[in-house]
């Protein structure tokens, strides 16, 4: 019997500590960054629900951006924080908690992509989110080269296609396979636009051939995946309470491996730590002999993984008053649950481990 029954899904799980060997860092302008972003977000009227607006206002978008991109110049960093605000609002107000169908998401994301591809082409049908992204796309041109704008546009296609795929599962009684879920969630989490912004915020340009190097593509996908899995680990209780949402890695593992949530939690942490170990080992190999621009990009990927966890550790967005709490100092752990360099048995991502150089 699958553990996606109603009785099991209401079971809240304990907080777990995270393994992340990347040192913490934070941009010094975090308070100014957050104030500017919240003020701008409220001016956009992305949501009509006042309670949702209050929740968004305390999400600490400045803290998220300052922790994930501590190296950034303030103007493009503020642009990144605004992107975060719009994508979080879109996720909550349109994707997760409004029961939008895949058909409706396909229409909305198509309008979004039209705004991103051709912001000068106005539309009377712009939703608040589309209109805000149109303005941000115009602002992007002040900080990004045409090549970087193109990369960001492609990244938004990855993200919006993931949203439609995600919506198609929210209307079903069953959950996707583990292989499908891993691919779906690394796209729908919104990390593709975030990693595309690393070089724009940092003020450098990575060569096309470096970004297309299979090792670098693997590191980029690993970053998307770690952020998405970490989000599932710390947000599951909130999602169950607020949206009755079981589209989560833990529940997918429950279904696929026919286990209880507690057992699935242990397995997910083990999977997650093995991927973190892979990132650490593969990034070290890529950095050996890399150009300065590639070094900054790979370092930016690691900082995003770490900064995302630093932000989540204190963000009110994920607090569940009745849920289990982490013990003091218990958000982090010094060693992974699994340091094996054997590929996880997930076909969609097993190729990452093929990029490792053989041990000498």
Number of strands: 0
Instruction: Count the DSSP helices.
Output: 16
Secondary-structure element order, as H and E? HHHHHHHHHHHHHHHH
Overall shape: globular
Report on the biggest sheet. none
- Secondary-structure-derived class: mainly alpha
Percentage of residues assigned to helices: 55-70%
Which residues sit in consecutive blocks of at least 5 with pLDDT less than 50?
A: 1-9
Share of β-strand residues: under 5%
The overall average pLDDT, rounded, is 90
Notable features of this structure?
360 residues; mainly alpha; disordered N terminus; single chain
Write up this protein.
This protein has 360 residues and is mostly helical. 62% of the residues lie in helices and 0% in strands. The chain has helices spanning 6-9, 30-44, 50-57, 61-68, 74-96, 102-117, 128-140, 146-170, 178-188, 191-196, 198-202, 208-211, 214-243, 249-257, 261-287, 292-312. The longest helix is centred in the middle third of the chain and has 30 residues, at 214-243. The chain is globular. The protein starts with 5 loop residues before the first helix and ends in a 48-residue tail after the last helix.
